[in-house]
Amino acid sequence: MRNGTLPVWMLRKAHFDPAELESAGLGRLLSTVLAARFPTPGEAYGFITAQQAVPPFLIPELAEAGKLILKHARNGRIFIAGDYDADGICATAILALWLRALGAEASCYLPSRADGYGFSLKAVEKAKEAGASLVVAVDCGTNDHESCRAAREAGMDVVVVDHHEVKHGRPPANCFVNPRHHGMDQHYCAAGLVYKVVEDMAARTPLPVPPDLVVLAAIATVADVMPLCGENRTIVRRGMDMWPVAKLPGLAALREVLGLNHVCTRHLGYDVGPLLNAPGRLGAPDPALELLLADDQERALELARYLREVNAERQELEAEIARETAALFEARAGDRIIIVADSRIPAGMTGIVAANASRQYRRPVVVFSAAEEPWRGSARAPAGYNLVELIREAGKGLPVKFGGHRTAAGITIEPAVFEELRKNLLAVAPPPPPRTVEVDALLFGGRAVTADEVAELGYLAPFGEGNPEPLFLARGVQFTPRTTRDGRHVLFTVENVRFVWWGGAAALEGLQQPLDIACTLQPDSYSGTPRVQAKVVHVAPSIRLTRDVVRAVYAAASSGRLNEALAKGGNLAEVALAALQELGVLEYDRGSGLLRPATVAGGTSLHDSGIFRAYQQAC
């Protein structure tokens, strides 16, 4: 387990007695999950019943931005500068579609990945050529001060609608709509913010918001991995409801080409989003925007089929790159942060390659395309890291251009900087955290699970970032497995629950029962009788953690013998270490490179650790 090969269970703690929700008519399973995820019964009940929406005027500068855009819609020309990913494309399309419906002159520009991310001086020149009186930068502009200033000096007004981290303060735009700049808790994607701007403008005109636009905001919210909480959840739910009946030719074409009459968040994230991203990864993103703006159904179908072909090409290229560069990543697998550069990786593929490697090695990964100068790259990291801060710290004094979010960032460097940047990143990166898996509740424990209460978990949907599908832990499971005809998958039954472990046959051979199994639950009526089906997500040998083991590991860390204790104690010692790190009583000392006891204010109880609670339960 030294490199996080086995999961460490972390049991969520109930904030209140689930019986308070059960008394209001909710089922046991749903009440247990809600009690673990929300601080009060009121907030929990509100989450599953309310349609949450933030009034546009509560988002700083949004109303001012809407007024300025409407002014130029009546008496000028508007130039929309977007980005090459699904969020930037959808954000551009939402604003362009509404403005054109209003009768305004609105032209659009998307950079290629070769141009690099951001609202560039090239975009400013394009706006001048278009005779624009207003530039609206969407999904970019936050840190593009030079371009904003150049546009203003050229006599154009500038509105920035963006959601990226603010590195250098407010840009010199007339209006700057970015909730991060104002410390708001709601994290919209750019398309979500543009949708809010359109809502505000629609309230000031006779033109309502076309219902199809929320589908574009939903696609972008999921594709850009925004937390599905608050209004994001409302946007995605409404977008999924509208998908089957959307009339925009581009959306109807996507529905037909993908064969998706109904969608869930998985479809938006793994089918629709990649199709919109595909052309920008291998060339120019314009065909995706043309699809969304199309007013002719035949042309829309032609474009959707083209995007499908390009995405298939992208998938083949991704597989080829994975084969050719596997040794490159494996050679760095022991580093705290993996940094590679290779001419075989196109600039448009660095994000996918970095994301795949980050999932595989469970640590931050930075991938540069060395095909041409400057080197353009992408960084991806698991939850718990802050890539922007890591790159900012490592890049001090170096000519490094970067931007993004905590777990996803873009970065551009000259080749001469690479080795020094790599050295600095290795120096500032913390050791990988334990591979913790947060579970909402324990299964079984003397009480049968019913299909009705499992079906009720659907009230929590849509699932995604910030609102994961409930995960349940079955401790100390023993079972008689049977495999499917192809020998790849495993089926077994525990009590009244039918478990399905896709691709589990090979993994099962190396495991000894009893096992701990983390799973999701779904109602299943395939046989005609309602029953419960569990999809296996994670599996680990069943162990029990005691206070004595935790004390021994803490003592070893205090005396500098932690590595010895971990080598001797194996999986059990690793779990104990993870519990200590969760409690914050051990911290990383950059000078020695070791975990040392931390100064903790007040008392600390082992029962404050979700890891300790999970492993205290009977096996």
Secondary-structure topology with pairs:
Layout: E1 8-11, H1 19-22, H2 28-37, H3 41-49, H4 62-75, E2 77-81, H5 86-102, E3 105-109, H6 121-129, E4 134-138, H7 145-153, E5 157-161, E6 175-177, H8 190-202, H9 213-223, H10 230-242, H11 249-258, H12 265-282, H13 286-293, H14 297-330, E7 338-342, H15 350-361, E8 365-369, E9 375-380, H16 387-394, E10 401-404, E11 408-413, H17 418-428, E12 436-439, E13 441-442, H18 451-455, E14 472-477, E15 482-483, E16 490-494, E17 497-501, H19 505-508, E18 515-524, E19 531-541, H20 547-558, H21 562-583, E20 586-589, E21 594-597, H22 610-616
Parallel strand pairs: 1-12, 2-3, 2-4, 4-5, 5-6, 7-8, 13-14, 17-19
Antiparallel strand pairs: 8-9, 9-11, 10-11, 14-18, 15-16, 16-17, 18-19, 20-21
Helix pairs in contact: 4-8, 5-8, 5-9, 5-13, 6-7, 8-9, 9-10, 9-12, 11-14, 12-13, 12-14, 13-14, 16-17, 20-21
